[in-house]
Amino acid sequence: MSLKEAEEMRGRKKGRRSSAGIVEIVVLIAVPVLCHYLIPVMIVIAPPYSYTGAVVMLAGLGFMMWAARVFGLAGTGFRLREGGSVLVTSGPFRYSRNPMYLGMLIWLIGFAVLLGSLVVFVFPVLFFLLAESLLIPQEERRMEQMFGERFTGYRRRVRRWL
């Protein structure tokens, strides 16, 4: 493959990542906000108590950033499809095999608390079910293929979520 072909391929992948990022933002932020206003089932956490959701959101974001930083320091990315090459077991990975998903779940719970309406609490539940039943098992199969017994031992030592 020529240098030009490699650069073109990288550009196409980057474009796909950008569009995937937009879809994630829409699903994780815009849809819950729309549901909050269009389907006002019940406010379960009212201001000023709902403002604690912002603190929870920051905690989730901080956990994700910590995991991303540990990935970066290890010289690998957190998207397994892009060829994660190192089994990372330090930092937040000592407590959770999936700190990125855990951080996102914490963020979504905080967002639901911040908005305060019952309908928005459906989104963290849906995210958890999707991650637990589809995303994580698929990634763990791939990790087991890539890292073999090292991953199996890590999986025995560290819980999936916490």
Care to describe what's here?
There is one protein chain. With 162 residues, this protein is mainly alpha-helical. It has one domain (42-157). Helices cover 69% and strands 0% of the residues. It is built from five helices and no strands. Helix 2 packs antiparallel against helix 3 (99-115). The longest helix has 36 residues, at 3-38. It is elongated, with a radius of gyration of 18 Å. The model is unreliable at 1-16 (pLDDT under 50).
Q: What is the topological layout?
A:
Elements: H1 3-38, H2 52-74, H3 99-115, H4 122-147, H5 149-157
Total helices: the number is 5
Mean pLDDT score, rounded?
86
Shape: elongated
Provide the gyration radius in Å: 18 Å
The succession of helices and strands, N to C, reads: HHHHH
Derived structural class: mainly alpha
Q: Could you tell me the strand content as a percent range?
A: under 5%
- Report on the biggest sheet: none
Helical percent range?
A: 55-70%
DSSP strand count: 0
Distance between the first and last residues' Cα: 43 Å
Could you name the ranges where pLDDT drops below 50 across 5 or more consecutive residues?
A: 1-16
- Number of structural units classed as domains: 1
